[in-house]
Specification:
This protein has about 475 residues and is mainly α. About 70% of the residues lie in helices and about 0% in strands. It contains 18 helices and no strands. Helix 3 runs parallel beside helix 5 and helix 12 packs across helix 13. The mean pLDDT is about 85. Its main location: membrane. This is D-alanyl-lipoteichoic acid acyltransferase DltB, MBOAT superfamily.
Length: about 475
């Protein structure tokens, strides 16, 4: 079930009405959330609900056992069991064929042959998100950062909470889980702000992302037919497509949750205004980047290790694992590795910049934002490409003399005539709101304009949203595949 579908509007309206009719009874509220979350997920494929239930019950029991056990060795064994269950499920469904193929290719180098058995496995939607969410629960109990939750209903609701179930934000149990232990009453202000947040998320998805996708998909899928200048347009449009698509989903999830009295963490904070790669990852998919910081980078030793080589290795491992989390393809691993390379270049550049100080601060800031955006956009080529060869060919064409060819005629031949205008309008809206709200907790605030101006803004956004929802229909969110 998609947030941008009419089915979801009906579904959420019913859930919302029944949910607040039961606000005097906490147990009923959680039962309604749990059942509605299973219906929401089961709308895609009921069979995979068993995986969520297995993860929920196993980590509930293991978390409780760790909390009650004072034996250090046994606590560690229980934690390993939790990781084995969660990573075992994730690894089988997401990485079995990748590892099988990679192993076959590796041994063939030495002249060995094998006949591997590849499985026709369907990747369960959102498995990477809810697996990481429930894993952090048992890890935090093991680290004595929180106590085990004794209420199975509350814990299962935490794992399966439908607004953020399939594409995040990846919540920490210490933040989200306690909220299911408190009654939620209807709050008119939070309801209004939730609607605005969801509305802005839908705009980013339907108006910006889906219209950018119209061109980006054609260009990437037929990259051999276009000159380098068109390929540059394609990757820039993909950069805004994936941002509008993914941050739009997060905005909708946050907005829906606010309407229901649940607070989710901010997941994006104007990432394309970042001044360096480290700053980018403080702003992009914040729930994932902080997860890898806390559960991969710091356990490896983080930046506290004495060896500069070890510190650099920790950074590389974290970025590469982050890339591999996104998908079972070498392109994602390279994408992650590129970000670690950019990080090292940024570090060296920052040291030199501090000694020069020859440019105005505002000009340096604009330069840094521009360079960071170019680096991130370049890496998106590997993220979007079907294979390593596809990415290399794409980059090679950009580096050729065809980069000077006028791309307008090629874009015009692709079909739709209204998309370019709407993309420009949408990006103008996006830029204005991103810049004006770059320090805000939530991304959609119209600001201190007079009422007629606010009304005009809301109406124009609503018109574009309704028009392109009717034109393009319900388009899947990109991160559903991860």
């Amino acid at each position: 079930m998609l947030f941008n579908s009419f089915e979801f509007v009906i579904f959420f309206s019913i859930v919302f009405f029944v949910y607040y009719k039961s606000y005097n009874n906490l147990k009923y509220q959680n039962v309604i959330l749990l059942v509605s979350s299973y219906v929401f997920y089961g709308w895609w494929d009921w069979r995979f609900l068993s995986l969520i239930i297995i993860s929920s019950i196993s980590d509930y029991l293991i978390g409780y056992a760790i909390d009650k056990n004072n034996n250090k060795k046994q606590r560690k064994q229980l934690l390993i069991l939790s990781l084995f269950v969660n990573l075992g499920i994730l690894g089988f469904f997401k990485y079995y064929n990748f590892f099988t193929e990679s192993f076959t290719d590796f041994i063939s180098i030495f002249g060995f042959e094998s006949n591997p058995s590849f499985l026709n496995i369907v990747l369960p939607v959102g498995i990477s998100f809810y697996t990481f969410q429930t894993m952090s629960y048992t890890i935090d109990i093991y680290r004595n950062k929180m106590s085990a939750n004794k209420n199975l209903l509350e814990f299962m609701t935490f794992v399966s909470f439908f607004p953020q179930l399939v594409a995040g934000p990846i919540e920490r149990a210490s933040h989200l889980l306690p909220q299911f232990g408190k009654k939620r009453k209807f709050d008119p202000y939070e309801f209004k702000e939730g609607i605005k947040q969801s509305f802005w998320g839908l705009f980013k998805k339907i108006v910006i992302a889906d219209n950018c996708a119209f061109y980006a998909n054609q260009i990437f899928e037929n990259s051999d037919s276009y000159p380098g200048s068109v390929l540059v347009v394609g990757v820039v449009l993909f950069a805004f497509q994936i941002y509008g698509d993914f941050s739009g989903y997060s905005d909708i999830a946050i907005g829906i949750s606010r309407m229901m009295g649940i607070d989710l963490m901010q997941n994006f904070k104007s990432p394309y205004l970042a001044e360096n790669i480290q700053d980018f990852w403080r702003r992009w998919h914040i729930s994932l980047s902080t997860w890898f910081r806390d559960y991969v980078y710091i356990p490896l030793g983080g930046s506290k290790v004495n060896s500069s080589f070890r510190r650099s290795l920790n950074i590389i491992i974290t970025f590469v694992v982050s890339g591999f989390w996104h998908g079972a393809n070498w392109t994602f691993i390279i994408w992650g590795a590129l970000h670690s390379l950019f990080y090292f270049i940024q570090t060296a550049y920052s040291k030199n910049l501090n000694t020069l100080k020859i440019l105005p601060a505002s000009l340096v800031k604009v330069f840094n934002i521009t360079v960071t955006f170019i680096a991130v956009t370049f890496a998106w080529i590997f993220f979007r490409a079907e294979s390593f060869t596809h990415a290399i060919n794409y980059i090679s064409e950009i580096g050729s003399s065809t980069i000077l060819v006028n791309p307008i005629s090629y874009l015009r031949d692709m079909g739709a005539s209204i998309q370019p205008i709407i993309i420009i309008i949408g990006l103008i809206y996006l830029s204005v709101f991103e810049i004006s709200n770059r320090n805000a907790s939530y991304s959609f605030q119209v600001g201190h304009y007079k009422t007629p101006v606010k009304t005009l803004i809301y109406c124009s956004l609503l018109f574009l949203l309704i028009f392109f929802r009717a034109t393009n229909g319900s388009v899947d969110f990109i991160y559903f595949q991860f």
